[in-house]
Every structure is written in structure tokens, then in C-alpha cells.
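DM from R.C. (forwarded with permission)

"hey, sorry to bug you on a friday — could you get me a structure for this? deadline for the figure draft is monday and I only need the backbone to look sensible"
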Amino acid sequence: MTPQEAAQSLTDWLSGLWDVATTPGWRQYQLLILVALVGVSYVLRYLTERRFDDWMRARAKWPKWRLRTLVQVRNRLTLLYFVILSWSVYLIMQEVTWPSRSRIIGVFATMAAAWLVIGLGTRLVRNRALRSVVKWSLWAYATFLALGLLDEATVFLDTIAIGVGTLRLSLLTLIEAVLLIALMMTVARLITQGVRNTLRRNEDISPSMQVLGIKTVQVVLYGFIFLFGVQALGFDLSGLAILSGAIGVGIGFGLQKVVSNLVSGIIILLDRSIKPGDVISLGETFGWIDSLGARYVSVVTRDGREYLIPNEDLITGQVVNWTYSNDRVRLDISFGAAYQDDPHVVRRVAIEAAKRVPRVLSDKYNPVCHIVGYGDSSVDYVLRFWIIDPTAGLTNVRGDVFLSLWDAFKDNGISIPFPQREVRVVNDAVSVQVQQEGH
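My reply, with the result:
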């Protein structure tokens, strides 16, 4: 069909629609029935909207995706009622009268059902701009298909095109490519979520290998989508050889750090030296790993700060992994007791005080207390104990042990000395003379 023929066909269709609307008969009656169904749909929405909201509130414990779906249905109650009513009327008229007397109602019922399904289905596309393009494109496609104008619309969109050399890019090709890419991205996202949930439920796979598996699936799927989208737009894939060469040169000069962090991230995932949930210390940063990225590792500290540490720093620098082979961590606290207190009693009381703290291990890894020196004012001790939950904090458990020591020493009469200084005046006469001169 040529553009002139498509324009003539569209003109004839509009003329026929005008004749249908102005000529009395069953065609006009069908339009009046459709208008009445629209009015009834609005009335039904007004009557049931509040009850539907109350029913939704009673299901507040449902999963979020179900609640979001209910919200979308609630926003389309008028269209939903129109679909139900129009299809009901169409099926009844098909049985009680001639099929031609309900054809227009069937066309609009089909269009409304397609609009409803498309409006709900496109919610799977997360990107709002892409979702709008997909939604309006599918609505237009469904409308033209139901009205029998698909060939005319296809010819019209194909005539709007730009040419660059041997490449011809039409509006029709662009819309088709966008729809295909959106569909493939949605499918890829759903597949990635399925793989992620499956891997996380498998306890035999370490967290680092789970992240590596998810990243691998994402790279493969989205790389395939990129290549398919480029080919769908009509670009010659052989031209990517020049682009890949340029990218290689750029990597050699300007992207060294980016590639280094990327490779370092892959190494971290493979050797499993660091995984989500580990407690690490890197310089002045102490916290637990929240997530592993392609370029950086997210470390959350106890004060709520989130540090994005480049992967290269974790490979080349010295990192203290408190939970590398196991979750046990030993902590030391130092204190002093007076010389008149029996050291054997002090050690026993200190160990018992540490055991009373809930987070301190007291079965296989019992706390121990040792004398480490004789100070100027006290006998110096060190109390060592183990915990298995360093992600819950270290300072707070130290504080709990110190507080338990304070209570235990107070109950057992053990004193914690503090430095005392004795000042003697050697020459009283000089002191008196200085005081007199001051007056």
C-alpha cells in the first residue's frame, strides 16, 4: 500500500464513521449503547470505590507486588466495569440478534480489554519513560488493529524516516525496536530475579559466588539485548569492530582504574576473601560489608555511614577480615586493681563478670584474665573474651563488660585505684616570703 492509498483509506474510514454517527439505524444505536455503558461504568465506580478501598486496607499484609496490582486495578475501575459490561452486552446481542447489529460494540469491547491488559502489563517495565513509550505504542497498535487500520498506520509510520548513507531509520522501525528492547529487558529482569532468588536459597553456594553468578547472568542477558537492539535498528554489527578498537585504546589510557576495579571485583568474588556480611577493617574504616559491586564494595559502619571502597584498594591494601574463616572475634580490655586486693580473687571475679554479659561466649571459649604488669598505682590486668556477632558492634559489648566488672568489683570489695600525688614544701621560709611579697 502506497502512502496515497493509505491516506485515501483513512479518509474513507473517517467518512464512514461520520455516516455511522449521523445515520439512524442499528449502527447509531450501538454508539448510543456504548455511551450509556460508559455512564453506567462511572456510576458503578462511584458506588463501589469506597468499598474497594476498605477491602484493600484489610489486605495490608499481602506482598507488595499484589498491593501495587490492586492499586492499579483500583485506578482503572471505570475501564474494568466498561470491559465487563460491553462484553456482556456484546455476547448477549450475538445470541439474540444479528451479528452485524453488535459489531461496533464488539470492536470497542476488544479495544477496552486490550487497553486494560496493556495498562496492567506494562507495570512490569520499571523505567517510567520507557514504560510510557511501550504503553502508548501498544495502545495505538491495539486500537488500529481493532479498527482495521493497522496497514494504513504502518505505511504512515514507515514514511517518516531519516537516511544516513545506506542506513534508513523510520519511525516504525524505531518503535518496533523500542518495544522489542523493552520486552527483552523486562524478561531479562524477571530471569535475573529468579536466578537471584534461586541462588540465595541455596546454602551450599557462598555469598560471593552468588553475587558472581547474578552478575554473570546480568552481563550475558543485557549484552545480548544490546546487540539485538543495535541489529533491530538496522546498524551493521561489523562496524562495531572499529568501536571495540577505540574502546581498547581508551581502556589503555583513561579507563585503567575502572578496569582495575572491575577485575579486582571479579577476583574478590572468585577467591571469596570478602563476602557480604563480613566485618572488615580498612585503615580508619570499620564496619560490615553490605554489598559487592562491579566497581566498589559498600561498607556500613556502626554510625550509619556507608563507605564505597574501590575494589582495587581491597586487593592491594591490607584488610583485616574479622569473620574470614569464622564469626568468632576475641576482644581485650585492660583494667587495674589495688595492690591490697588478692590477684586470684580479682581474676576469678573478672571472669565471672564477663560471663554474665549475654554476648560473651562462655562454653568452649571461656574468658580469661591475666596479670600483665605492676603499675605505679595498681596491678594491671587484661581480660580476654570471645563473641560471635561482631556485626552487632564491638564498643557496646566492651562497655557491657566494663559495667559488669564495675558491679562485680563493688560487690566483692575490690577497689580500682587512681593515681595520687603527694606535694611537700621543702622551704617554708621561702614560701612565706613569696606570700608576703605578693601582698
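R.C.: lifesaver. The longest helix spans residues 26-57.
me: no worries. The radius of gyration is 38 Å.
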